[in-house]
Amino acid sequence: MPAESRQSRKRAATREAIIDAAEALLETGGLDAVTLPAVSERADVALQTIYNRVGTRDAVLLAVAERALSANRKYMDAAYARPGTVEQRVLAAAMAYAQFATERPNQFRLLSAPPDLPEALNRIADLTAEQNGKLADVLRDGIADGTIRADVDPDVTATLLWAAVDGILNLTWRVDRHRTDGSELLGLFGAIIGDGLRPR
After folding, report:
1. Cβ neighbours around 33 below 10 Å, total
2. Is there a contact between 73 and 52 (Cβ–Cβ < 8 Å)?
3. Tens of pLDDT along 124-142?
């Protein structure tokens, strides 16, 4: 039994090292850098070990996406846990999303434009629905206490707010003259959204 436990721990450690290597490649070179030969070299394991412990490139990318999902959830959960008015909580969520994109740009891009893998697409869609649901709940709080317009549909508005911030953040990676650092646009977004959500 002890020998089996050691073997299990060793297999688990090898799997984590492979995912660590893939994650590091993503962070430094983006999605295209995450190839199995590159992961093999960085993790110092044979290609067959990657197949045995994680699977194909698709499986490796899914494992990296799962880590990105976990990281994103920490940023967003911390924002939603903050006290404040409904407007402050909405803006805190937008800023947390922007912070995640700034501090973990390639993880953000992986979630914003995920690989065409059904399992990854479904998991990322689930996270988006979960986080948009939390934002919709914040808006419902505002409708209930009279600080948000009563004619606002919380679910549709949450999707709109997420899409707007996502679009602003994606401008930071454009290679043409529309590229922006996003901070000015996020500030303007906050002002417009705050005014638009308040009761008339």
Report:
1. 16
2. no
3. 888 889 999 999 999 999 9
Tell whether 153 and 187 lie within a shared domain. Answer: yes
- Token reading at 61: 């990318």
Q: Which of 71-80, 116-125, 143-152 has the lowest mean pLDDT?
A: 116-125
Q: Please indicate, yes or no, whether residues 48 and 3 belong to a single structural domain of this protein.
A: yes
- Total number of domains constituting the chain: 2
First to last CA, the chain: 69
The stretches of 44-117 forming alpha helices (DSSP H) are 47-53, 57-80, 86-103, 105-112
Tallying the residues shown for the chain, one arrives at 200
Contact 140, 157 (CB under 8 A): no
Q: What pTM did the predictor assign?
A: 0.81
Residue that has been written with the tokens 């508005």 in this structure = 157
